[in-house]
Amino acid sequence: MKLNPQGSKLLQGAFILSAAAIVSKLIGTLQKIPLQNLGGDAVFGIYNTVYPLYTMLVTVAMLGLPPAISKFVAEASAGGDEAEGRRVLRLSAILTAISGLVIGVLTYAGAPVIARWVGNSHVIPALHTSAWGLAVVPLMAAMRGYFQGLHNMVPTAVSQVVEQSVRVIVMIALLLYLTRNGADAASIAAGALLGSAGGGAAGLLVMLLFWRRHRHKVSALLPEAASELSAAAAETAAGRQSGFSAAAGGRRHKGIQARQLLTYGLPVMLGALAVPLVGLVDVFTVPRLLSSSYSEAASMAQFGIYNRGLPLVQIVTMLATSLSVVFIPALAEAKYRGDEGLVRTRCSLSLRWFWLLGLAASVGLAVLAEPINVALYGDAAGSSTMIWLAFTAAGGTVSIISAALLQGLGAVRAPALHLLAAAMLKAALNLLLVPQQGITGAAIASVATHLFAAALNVLLLHRQGYLRLRFADALVKPALLLAGLGLAAAAVSSGAGFAAAAAGFGGGRTASLAQSLLGVLAGCAVFAAGAVALRLLSESELRQLPGFGPKLADKLKKLRLFP
After folding, report:
1. Phi/psi of residue 58, each to 5°?
2. Is 545 helix (H, G, I), strand (E, B) or coil?
3. 319 in Cβ contact with 518 (< 8 Å)
């Protein structure tokens, strides 16, 4: 079946936006490794304390307006009223610019107060520099929403990649300059956070350049549009024409108001705030709880060590997030058609496989935690904590996919409420475990929190009749596969370590990198072979997964991996 041009354009735009999001998130995740290498654990800890606060403040400053702008601009464009779309952008730009400036000033002035809430004064300079980003990023987001409303995803995609790239370049340049000049950890972290303002300014500049080109294009089309309207008016009866003019005048004066934008946007903003809540709980509890046993500087260093494993886990959850957008429209379509069997099949398959992939990533990272830690960060500090953090990948992937399934089935608020409940559990467990076990206690609390959020989502799907829980599928068969994966990864990694030691270069970062890569390859090979041998997924089941399922099934069939 052929797609109409509009549908094709939407699919192309979704692909462009998804690809840009993956690239920008990957850049943003991997930049944390050179940050720790150049700045050290204390700088890493301060950065990972302030950056989640910064992202939360940006979310608040945007007021949830980008989706609202996109909606109203799309409606105006569909009605042929380009002027109304531009008016929506102007109004939204004023709102987001004012909001960003106000929150930026409050953040700068209130940095000492926020530092007291966190329990560490070393974050004050970083809060000051992060405030500059709040002046530009909300306005950039508003412009992205405008072009998305016109179904033009290229400006958003380009600005995302440029923003992240410039952010990392500015960050690394300032890290090199400040470390060579002997700056303290607080000043170095502040320089790293200034990269957010540099990236935001670059992204805004890209959007302004696209806007300039778009404005010239629209201006060139106005004379032609005016002549067409004049011709249409000449053919209209006088009485009918006057009625039409009165109605048009009424619509022209009515327009979209700030209240309508905020009514649509603020609930979106509140929903978006639920996602980073678990990370914010760590920000406001772990450094403060560590301060009873460590100095402020040492507490930040410990928090930096705690965050070492997060970039690797985030790569796994980023993959789940990117794929989750495929399930929302697919399930909504199946439910609309009344195909309950297809809904149940897709729910079951997606959860089973993302649970399995999350467990595989968790086991692999846990088994290879020490060589990965040495390879990426230069020493083995916090390897036991990284082992625990690895298992957040399992709960995190299921939580993300199950939330997407619920949203596709119309339960939009439930995942946000479940995340709120999980954040409350995280705070309670941090208060209980961190004083006793330090950062390892925080890692254990994170594992329990993500599994709790995932369990709430899965149980809701089960209660609604879209999922049948089977113990064997969830634990027994995966246990056999994961045991083989872990043994293979550990054996190959250890063998590589012994070989490197015998050759005289064991224990270093190069040897650890070789151990890690060989262990990952061995684990992946055993996982693929075991999944086929245990018949964990058939060809017909794979073809029922939306989006990537049929193409992946064709490739695996060519490799003769299906019986």
Report:
1. -65, -40
2. coil
3. no
User: Who contacts 415 (Cβ-Cβ below 8 Å, separation ≥6)?
Assistant: 274, 402, 403, 406, 407, 457
Residues 47, 186: contact at Cβ < 8 Å? no
**Whole-number Cα distances in Å, 189 to 105, 137, 414:** 20, 20, 37
CA distances from 297 to 41, 129, 290, 304, 407 (A): 10, 19, 11, 11, 43
Two tokens, residue 20: 């840009």
Distance CA 45, CA 296 (A): 11
The phi, psi pair for 119, rounded to 5°, reads 95, 25
What does R_g of the chain's alpha carbons equal in angstroms? Answer: 26
- Please tell me the least confidently modeled range out of 213-227, 481-495, 541-555: 213-227
Q: Rounded to 5 degrees, what are φ and ψ at 552? A: -65, -40
Residue in the structure block whose two tokens are 């039409």? 244
For 202-216, what is the mean pLDDT? 90
Q: Which amino acid is residue 98, in one-letter code? A: I
Percent of the chain as helix, strand, coil, to the nearest 5: 85, 0, 15
What tokens were used for 486? Answer: 């872990």
Q: Compute the distance between CA of residue 208 and CA of residue 142 in angstroms, rounded to an integer.
A: 11
Non-local CB neighbours of 457 within 8 Å, separated by 6+ positions: 398, 399, 402, 403, 405, 406, 414, 415, 418
Q: Which is it for the CA torsion 203, 209, 210, 215, positive or negative?
A: positive
Report DSSP state, residue 561: -
Instruction: State how far the Cα of 343 lies from the Cα of 465, in Å rounded to an integer.
Output: 10
Which residue, 276, 313, 278, is CA-closest to 422? 278
Q: Give residue for tokens 């109605």.
A: 247
- How far apart are alpha carbons 451 and 436 in whole angstroms? 22
Start-end of H helices in 40-81: 41-62, 65-78
Helix (H) or strand (E) run with residue 522 in it? helix 509-533
SS (H, E, C) 393-405: HHHHHHHHHHHHH
Q: How far apart are CA 89 and CA 97, in angstroms?
A: 12
Instruction: Determine the pLDDT at residue 58.
Output: 92
Per-residue pLDDT tens for 521-531?
999 889 888 87
Say which residue the tokens 């959020």 belong to. Answer: 453
Average pLDDT of the chain, as a whole number: 82
| Residue type (1 letter), 178 | L
For residue 327, pLDDT beyond 70: no
On whether the CB atoms of residues 47 and 189 are closer than 8 A, the answer is yes
17 has pLDDT over 60: yes
d(CA 115, CA 358): 35
pLDDT, position 235: 46
* More confident call, 45 vs 541: 45
